[in-house]
Amino acid sequence: MVLTKQYDRHVPEKVFGIIGSGNANNIALLPSTTKSSARRVFVPACENVLLWDLKTHSQINKFVDEASSTSVSKKKTREEVIVVSVSPNGKHLAVGYQNGIIKIFSLTQNETTVNFHGHKSTITTLIFTQHSATLISGSKDTDIIAWDLITEAGLYRLRGHKAPITKVILMESQPVIISSSKDMTIKFWDMTIQHCFHTIVTHRTEVWSIALAHDRYLVTGCSDNELRFFALRSTKTDEDDTFVFPPMQDEKTNEDQVLIHVQSLGSLVRKSKQRVSNLIIDNESRVLACHGMESFGEFFRIATIDEVRTRLRKRFLKARKRRENGDEKNEEEIKIDWDISLIFTLMCEIKFDGKIRAMDLFMDTNMICKIIALTLSNKIDISSLNIQDKTVEQLPSIEKSAHRTEIRCLAFSSDDMLIASGSGESLKIWNRHSCESIRTIPCSYALCCMFLPGDHSVLIGCKNGSLQIACLDSASIIETVQGHEENQSVWAMCMTTDRQSFLTGGSDKKIQFWNFELKDDNENNTKKARKRLSFDQKRSFDVGEDVLALKISPNNRYFVAALMDTTVKVFFMDSCQMFLSLYGHSQPVLCLDISSDSRLVITGSSDRNIKIWGLDFGDCHRSLFAHDDTITAIQFVPKTHLFFSASKDNRLKYWDADKFLHIQTLDGHCGEIRCMSITNNGMHIVTAAHDRSIRLWERTEEPLILDEEKEQ
């Protein structure tokens, strides 16, 4: 029997650094029991749903899809959460995923109670009925399904739309489902006979969202800049409707027993020229919010039914007076000027910090409306709007535990306890155990970073060509040096093994050599002179092409640079003479690494190949077609010939460079992976991606035998 080499299995450990995902369709407020209690909001974040407290700005709970996190051995990709909905009794959370599965979480026990498989593609909308026993779901596969939570089964499927469903809402007074779709129609379904009894076909573009006020007025938003309004008249109830609805144009006979008559009320023009993303009306039907894909939302005040009646009575009396004064011809009926401004009036626009992805609102007091908006800059903005005097107050937003822009670089400290992550606006330091952000240091646009000896400061290479030292004790930038030419990016930096000097390479076609030195710390005017770590330029070396990646061999003899002309060149460290040129990639190499015994070089390129080279003769040992998209990061596990590669295809892969084997694929990110770092003991890997999440992966004791993996 042949002995097969066994490897250690890696598993996902934690996800952090994300407040809400950019693909979320909505956010959902937990129904409050009393007016005074602090409100909480459910926000989709990649494959999880986070519960945030709006008062303390802390994450209270995390709803994880257990099925995908426990079954490690089975090939199970994680699906992204698109839509969430909370039952009116506050006991259940319904979560719709990208693959069409709906999971129901029990909020009291904090676990999945039931999975519904019925849709073929992404869930777009979810809503519970008033008594919380039925869930209605709409999907991109054009179907609407009603699910029973008590028997845990599907009740019926409504087919009729020709394009993806965009939103489903329910009437309170009657068993009617109203659904909108991208096929430009709005359909009314009777839940008792599961049949469509009316279709609005007057829209000329896709209907993106609908909302219902007072159970009587339907608002629709399309791809154009108008909001259209419809009155829903009940045929059953004989209430005094003359003061709520405009007069009917044609008298309907009672032959067709439909539940409601739909009548167009008119339209309002929005300020924005973009399409509507969502229309939201709060529970008490006082405020209508409308937002597109921009950074502002428009807010309309909705008059209460009593207000509408009083206004119409006033107009009625005026018209009667005019008739008595003989201004108008004696007609049988008194005409009332009916227009939409009786009910809906524009209050204000509110600008948010970033494009709005999802929004929800609730009435905090009788006159104050609180607005919660999840923006694409990975934060939750909270505003308070006074509907009486139309004033807006910006409240503190939930943003501490995340970057505003996407993360471009990651680094571990020498004791593996701290993680540094750099993005377009700041450098954050995270504790690896708790995954809490312990420092946020504003800086220039960071492209690469590393901890300096002593782990009290981090060196950042910026997009504008400068090098910045961020001090962790004072949480500030203590020194900025223009290391490369102005506005020429610093793409790579690496330290020598003796930790005495380092190299930087950038798009000004130069490699700079720097030495560390201790300078007097003049900033603190104390009598005791303190020294702080700084650096000084030793020499500069022109390579003639943009430097994209840079590494120094652990034996300190060579440094390897990946250049824009697709070659990788090996130079002697002392004389800067060229030793080898490694060519074979068809597109530029974006990342490289050298094994700790200085024998192997691995390069990852945008041609999706990984090449393994010998550093003694520069021969290519093997070329591996590794990923389905550009390879963005590659790194050896210290003291081994095993390595990890990360790519824009959202995957992290584990390889053996001696046997040229693919060992394991780690799925999890919902966006392209930008950067990666491995601890010095090789136990943890951290990756950051375009989906704004940072993920920590750990090595387990569980063996992984390749033949068994292949059989599975």
TrEMBL record:
<dbReference type="Pfam" id="PF25173">
    <property type="entry name" value="Beta-prop_WDR3_1st"/>
</dbReference>
<feature type="repeat" description="WD">
    <location>
        <begin position="666"/>
        <end position="698"/>
    </location>
</feature>
<dbReference type="GO" id="GO:0030490">
    <property type="term" value="P:maturation of SSU-rRNA"/>
</dbReference>
<feature type="repeat" description="WD">
    <location>
        <begin position="624"/>
        <end position="665"/>
    </location>
</feature>
<dbReference type="InterPro" id="IPR036322">
    <property type="entry name" value="WD40_repeat_dom_sf"/>
</dbReference>
<dbReference type="InterPro" id="IPR020472">
    <property type="entry name" value="WD40_PAC1"/>
</dbReference>
<keyword id="KW-0853">WD repeat</keyword>
<keyword id="KW-0677">Repeat</keyword>
<dbReference type="InterPro" id="IPR051570">
    <property type="entry name" value="TBC1_cilium_biogenesis"/>
</dbReference>
<dbReference type="GO" id="GO:0030515">
    <property type="term" value="F:snoRNA binding"/>
</dbReference>
<feature type="repeat" description="WD">
    <location>
        <begin position="158"/>
        <end position="199"/>
    </location>
</feature>
<dbReference type="GO" id="GO:0034388">
    <property type="term" value="C:Pwp2p-containing subcomplex of 90S preribosome"/>
</dbReference>
<dbReference type="GO" id="GO:0032040">
    <property type="term" value="C:small-subunit processome"/>
</dbReference>
<feature type="repeat" description="WD">
    <location>
        <begin position="582"/>
        <end position="623"/>
    </location>
</feature>
<keyword id="KW-0539">Nucleus</keyword>
<protein>
    <recommendedName>
        <fullName>WD repeat-containing protein 3</fullName>
    </recommendedName>
</protein>
<dbReference type="InterPro" id="IPR001680">
    <property type="entry name" value="WD40_rpt"/>
</dbReference>
<dbReference type="InterPro" id="IPR015943">
    <property type="entry name" value="WD40/YVTN_repeat-like_dom_sf"/>
</dbReference>
<comment type="similarity">
    <text>Belongs to the WD repeat WDR3/UTP12 family.</text>
</comment>
<dbReference type="InterPro" id="IPR019775">
    <property type="entry name" value="WD40_repeat_CS"/>
</dbReference>
<dbReference type="Pfam" id="PF25172">
    <property type="entry name" value="Beta-prop_WDR3_2nd"/>
</dbReference>
<feature type="repeat" description="WD">
    <location>
        <begin position="400"/>
        <end position="440"/>
    </location>
</feature>
<feature type="repeat" description="WD">
    <location>
        <begin position="116"/>
        <end position="157"/>
    </location>
</feature>
